[in-house]
Structures are given as C-alpha cells and as structure tokens.
Amino acid sequence: xxxxxxxxxxxxxxxxxxxxxxxxxxxxxxxxxxxxxxxxxxxxxxxxxxxxxxxxxxxxxxxxxxxxxxxxxxxxxxxxxxxxxx
Length: 86
Hints:
87% of the residues lie in helices and 0% in strands. By secondary structure, the chain is mainly α. The protein has one domain (2-85). Helix 1 packs antiparallel against helix 2 (34-46) and helix 2 packs antiparallel against helix 3 (50-65).
C-alpha cells in the first residue's frame, strides 16, 4: 500500500512539475517570466528526481553569475531596444 502511495505521489509531482516547466519553456518564446517559471518547475521536479536537482543547481549558478546565456540575452535585448528607439 505504501509503495502505491509513493508511486502516486511521484506521478503527481511529475505531472505538475513537467507542466510548470513546459509553461516556462513556452514563455521563453512568448512574453512571460520564463526566468521565474522554469526554476519553479525544476524545483517541483527536484523534490523527486536527482536529475532535476542537478539542473536546478546549474540554473541557480547561471543566474547568480549572470552567465553567458543571460549576458547574451541582455546584449540582444539592449541592441533590439536601441534599434527600436531610432
């Protein structure tokens, strides 16, 4: 009985976490706070999965360092914004 409850919990967390993560990925393309939603989805998944814990740790490091991905997006957006003003 306990293994069924653990399995059910894992399935529910998988569905909720995957849905939040998918919404975060969609908000990369569409307007939205992807930088908040994606770590939230990974945080939900990290409660049950080791791979999600590793990804979440990597995302946190990237955010704290303002890594190349974030810097390139800032440069891209500032270039676009400056072009739009002209």
